[in-house]
Design goal:
This protein is of the alpha/beta class. The chain has helices spanning 4-8, 30-46, 49-58, 61-69, 76-95, 146-157, 165-176, 181-196, 217-226, 243-259, and strands at residues 9-16, 19-26, 120-125, 131-141, 204-212, 232-239. It has ten helices and six strands; from the N terminus they run αββααααββαααβαβα. The protein has a six-stranded mixed β-sheet.
Length: 264
């Protein structure tokens, strides 16, 4: 799969010890690229290729398309929030070197209800082959506010900065059920972390990812300086002009992508 952010955005990066701040904006032709690339990725966060294949064994193509569309939100706020989560997960894998082993939104039980727990859980290994975890919060708004940033930061610091046991168990359960032996092993390791909370602070990273219509330079800069510098901290602001129109266009594209399944 092509690199989303490399082809979509330009960025300014500031690094202070263990903390990194990214300010991203679209390249000249980045919007056109994003609206071609994102619908497929968005769809994948709601339904896997194996699930689509299973649907096709039972349903006709139009029914499969409608089935998939019912998994995605229709309300503006739901779309905005979930696109923020999706873009955060994509950033984690492309830029931070962590794997997001479970697409969280595939576990939703209602298209308009937000899921509990952390927005993103990332997995990596250090140079001694020890497990590292990334805990991520994502926020998406036409006008990002200081209060929204503070709310996300508070959630990151909850549970002594660790991912909640609920979120880790959710990820572990999905992996343990996999037919892939490596995923089963990883699921077991994550399950142990959910119960014994033994992973040290130096192997816990935080991500605060924001998608906004405004620049939000001052509030993100203040949060960056105030963030705990004793752990890896990543703060990302992706500014999108016409934020609401962009979110709508991405989900409209995902709906069309669902409808094109029968053409493949």
């Amino acid at each position: 799969m092509t690199e989303l952010y490399k082809n979509w955005c330009r960025g300014e990066r500031t690094v202070v010890m263990k903390k990194t701040l990214w300010r991203l904006s679209e390249l000249k032709n980045g919007r056109e690229y994003a609206l071609e690339e994102l619908p497929v990725r968005v769809l994948n966060h709601y339904v896997s290729d194996n699930e689509i294949a299973a649907f096709l064994e039972t349903l006709e193509y139009p029914e499969v398309a409608e089935c998939i569309r019912t998994l995605m939100p229709e309300e503006v706020n739901g779309r905005s929030g979930e696109l923020g989560e999706i873009l955060a997960a994509e950033f984690v894998e492309e830029r931070l070197g962590y794997e997001v082993p479970v697409r969280k939104l595939r576990g939703k039980d209602h298209r308009e209800m937000a899921m509990r727990g952390e927005d993103v859980i990332g997995i990596a290994y250090d140079n001694k082959d020890r497990l590292k975890l990334l805990k991520g919060e994502a926020k998406s708004a036409r006008k990002l506010s200081r209060g929204t940033i503070q709310e996300a930061r508070t959630r990151l610091e909850e549970n002594h900065g660790r991912p909640s046991a609920y979120s880790l168990i959710f990820v572990a359960r999905q992996l343990i059920q996999s037919e892939d032996p490596e995923k089963k092993v990883l699921g077991g390791k994550i399950l142990k972390q959910a119960t014994n909370r033994a992973i040290p602070k130096r192997r816990l990273a935080h991500l605060l990812f924001t998608l906004s219509g405004n620049k939000a330079n001052k509030i993100t800069q203040d949060d960056f300086h105030a963030a705990d510098g004793t752990r890896e901290q990543y703060l990302v602001n992706l500014r999108i002009s016409g934020h609401g129109e962009f979110v709508e266009a991405v989900y409209d594209g995902a709906y069309e992508e669902a409808g094109s399944i029968g053409d493949n």
